[in-house]
Amino acid sequence: MSKYFAELIFRTSETVPGPVSDLECQAVDGQPNLLLVSWEAPSEVNGAIKGYIITYTLIDRGQCGVSGDSDDSGMRQMQSDDTEVTLQNLYPYSTYNITVQARTSAGEGEGISATAATSEAAPNEAPQNVRVISVTSRSLEFGWDPVPCESANGIVLHYEYMVVSGYDIYPTILQRVKRSIEDTDSHLLIVEGHQVTIGNLKPHTFYGFMVRGVTAAGSGPLSDIIFHKTDESVSSQPLFLDVISVASERLGVAWRQPESPNGEIIQYRAQVWDHELSHLTADVIFNVTDDENEEGKFAKIIENLKPASDYFIKIQAATRAGWGAFSDPIPARTLDGVPGEPSEIDVLENGQRTINITWQPPILKNGVITGYKIIYRPLSTLDPVFNATPFVSLEKEVGGGVTDISLQDLHPSTEYNITIQAKTSTGYGRPAEIKTWTVILGDHVSPSVRAVEVEATNDTIPILFSTTGSTSVYKYQVIVEDARNSEPIDEDLLSDFDTAVVKQNLPYYIAAELDPQNVSSTGEHSFVVGDRKVWGGYKNVHLNPGHEYKIRIRTLVVKDQELKSVLSEPKEETAASTFVQVLHCNKPKIFGMEPIVFILILIAVLVLITAITFLTILAIYSKRQRKKSTNSFSTRDSGLSGSMTWSVMYKVPDNEVIESPLVTSGFRTLPLIEKNASLKRSKSDSKIVRGMRIETLEEFLINVRGTNQLVEEFKRLVEGQTSPWTAARKNCNLKKNRYGNILPYDRSRVVLHTDSNKSDSDYINASYIDGYRRPREYIVTQGPLENTITDFWRMIWQENAPVIVMVTDLVENGKKKCAKYWPDDSIMCDDMQILVIHSEESTDFVIRTILMRKMDEIRTHRVMQYQFTGWPDRSVPTNTNYFIKFLKKVRDDHPVMGGPMVVMCSAGAGRSGTYVAIDALCQQAAEDKRVDVFRFVNNARHQRVHFVQTLEQYTFIYEALVEAIQYEDTSVPLEKIGMYLKELNHMSTLDKRALILKQYNKLNRAQKKVDANRCSVALSEVNIFKNRDPLTVPEDEARVKVYVDDRNEDHMGYINAVFVDGYRKKGAYIVTQMPMTHTTEDFWRMIYQYRSSFIVMLNGSDETDDLNVGIYWPELGGCSYGEFEVDVVTYEEHEDFIMRIMRLTNSLQMNEEPHEVIQFQYKAWSSEMKPASMLKLLHNTDLWYHKSAGGPITVHCMDGATRSGLFIAACFIRDQINSEEVLDTFQVVKSIRLNRPEFIPNSDQYRFLFEVAQELADPIIHRYEELSQPAKKLSFKI
């Protein structure tokens, strides 16, 4: 074997390498987008390692649970055998899958994978949706959404924010501010959550807000800055308040704007206090202009201050947040002013030529009183000589410390007007005035009287008496006295002939009362004593032949505002009294009789046989006539047959009325007989038409409208005083009369029973009035005064009156019309206890049940008081239907009365008379089928003066009678509504029309037609464009008046709206049209001024093609409508309606609380509405109304009539059924049409109201039927 051998070197082929080992991936500190990857070479190389392939894939970006897409993967190939590589441009805080493979020429070996995460970085986006959450005057609350996860680059540990204040931050400055903040960490605050409240801010200031997220690696970018203003707050006190001008009643002040306005100053308030700061004298608010706010200086005048007064003044400013702090008060004093009138002026003593007066300094001195001026001048005199001379004013001045003076060298029997003025450094003030008389001398007052004997007859004597011509003479009275009387005349007993001579057997009486206007002002006046006429309500009865009389003239003088009487005394030298012997002439006699008497007897004998033949016929005829009518004018003459009746159908003046005794039964009163008319029965008496038939009454009223027929008829009524009223004019009774010209006649007055142990009077201002064929059926009286309440209840008890009808309010137009004579609970009137045991209130009247009892009597008396409140003084009721309903209510409650009905208004004349006339004439209509308005009123005026006072009231009697008589009772009991509706829907056999249609047409005929002349405001050029429909406008007296300036008549606005009465409340609804775009402010002004808290909207805002629809509420938040701010605070949408609660604020009255208004918008109205839907609507509106603050309910539809009228009528019917259990659709519609005639425009709506009523009635009837079922009997076995 050889020692040499051959060597063969052979290399196998390469294969893929084995896997690498020890693969590690690490994040690089400070480099969140890098990963360091290292490994060891494969243990099985299998060839030469050519390099490595590193592949990385994004698994979770930002730890948000979201894997990346293919674009987020990468690959690195290394050509060297290095075993370490740095991966770049990775996402921070993200997880990657990393695979490493070794590579030989044979290919890539097995890959080894590992996961790794990059480190955190600062966020690269700002927080999103930065917003304001809440705002106050001192704080702002901001919120934001988190930084998006993929942009957070780590865990957001907290947020940093900054607030920038100021108005003038421009964009370039903002960018600089952001960069400076981002470069430094100064001025930043930290918050953990996603919202922050920043406090201690300035009110009414803009603030900018920025926020950024912070991770462990740093802070991200700031958000865009957002600005928001803090709310306004009350201001600090105004600065530099000073007084710049002074006058007697005003002060000028100036000041500067507060250092911290804390909002926009809109008003300033100046308060003026007295010098002790205990009493607020003036509180004045000034509005601020934009120019004033910009300049910050203010100067204003405070007026209506007291002169010569010390004050303190302070000012405060108002923003929309309210009133701020007051300034420190500064003192000020007004200058002296003219003083007020002197007080307590009085007359100390009156002499014939002197008057001593005294006074006290003015209550309003307005400075130091330096003197007084007294001016005195004669007003009138009873001295005819002095009366003929010109009256001259005289004047005196005295010092400021003097408070009395004696005026000398005056004229006797003269009235003087004396004025006193106080004086300050500014001048004289208002005068105080007093009128008084010097002592009256008898020579000046008592006229001389002489008889004209040559013209005397057997029973008359002419006289001449001198007159003074003074304007102070109220009346002249002719006093006739029996010459044999030696006792002095008691003037308190002086009365007419019947009272004084016949009843009281006195030897003197008043024969006549003459008005000075009808008496010669100079020289002598002639008068015939015994001429049988009535003069001033007194009978001048004939004198007895052969008797001697003493005739005096009594002068009634208005002295010191009281009525004084001066009765002339018999003095021969002045002829003040004249003895008059009525002549007994020596005339030829026949058979011892005067010729005239013989002739009369002879004529009587000749006609006696003839008289007997027709006497029976005449008696029968007269009896029939009396049955036909008992309310004829009739009288008897004592000198003729007592059975004769005289009828006169015309009126003559008082001084031409022939006297005859009075008859007090039935309607019989004084006769009205023309002068020189013969006392014969009228041949045409039997042909006089006694009124008119009731079926012609409506036609008559239609025909006389537009003519003077009723005017002339009213003028023919007897006017003024027709009988004496001596008792009413006694001094002790004067204060018991409310008015001096409305007094009861002696013959018809109510005479109260008196107690001999008491000093009470028998007088009350009340008169008996005859009804139709019922004497003394009524008592008409004035509204009680405070001092006559007890007398009133004495009368009620004495007369056993079951009913009091009161047709006045206690106060009307600011004037007291009647004392409150009934208690709220109980009162004592002398020995009577008055208790109110029940009260029931309706729309226009109140019914009270009153119980009376006397302490010393067992019996009690129950009286019903019916007070009608819808009747203005000297006018007529605003709603005839309500009045007739009231009148019938009284009669239905009391078909038979045990005593007279007491009727009262303020005076007991106009309204009371109208009520009595209508009530009595309704009875005449029921009994005779006729009415005679003229005859009844004329007769009643002989029992009560001024009975039915005005032409308007007289006309209303006819209108009310038509209402009461011509239209039948259309009310239906609850249980008969269904049957009644079937009858109305039944076709008439005559004209084939449903009866309901006929009733509806009848309603339309009775409807008052709209007169354009009475709609002058609505149709004026200024307002006509404020009406949606020019045919649906309010009358001037019915419209809702809105005032642009605090109810100032000179600044009155207009809105197409009317008041409509509800069942229980007058003016319960305000009905208006849907506002137009230019009337929304008027709408809110009406809501504000009438404090309406509930609006019912019956139309949609988009259901018409009319573009002029004013949406008067904001959709969200607030909105301004002129001076009114409206904010929607609650919005609720239901199936059939939308409910909004709004707050209404008047920007000119910032010190007021906002007025809350609920709007109920009904969405389900349709032409096919069912009764059940209407009742559901009423139920829902009731629920929400009771949640409101009350006030009138404002109802509107598009035209303010079609839907609104149906809604209100349904409300009225529901309340009527629930309260009375009756239905009267006819009268309901008639009532609500009073101010809006366009309501219920068609018969379909009219029929629908009956269906609503039936829907209401059915469950009530069913409930009653269940209650009326007899209870089942239960039996038990024991």
From TrEMBL:
It catalyses: O-phospho-L-tyrosyl-[protein] + H2O = L-tyrosyl-[protein] + phosphate. It is an enzyme of class 3 (hydrolase). It is a single-pass type I membrane protein. Its EC number is 3.1.3.48. InterPro entries: FN3_dom, Fn3_PTPRU, FN3_sf, Ig-like_fold, Prot-tyrosine_phosphatase-like, PTP_cat, RTP_Phos/Ushers, Tyr_Pase_AS. Residues 710-964, 996-1256 form the Tyrosine-protein phosphatase domain. GO terms for molecular function: protein tyrosine phosphatase activity. The chain crosses the membrane at residues 596-621. GO terms for biological process: neuron development. Its main location: membrane. It is found in: Membrane. This is protein-tyrosine-phosphatase. The lineage of its organism: Eukaryota, Metazoa, Ecdysozoa, Arthropoda, Chelicerata.
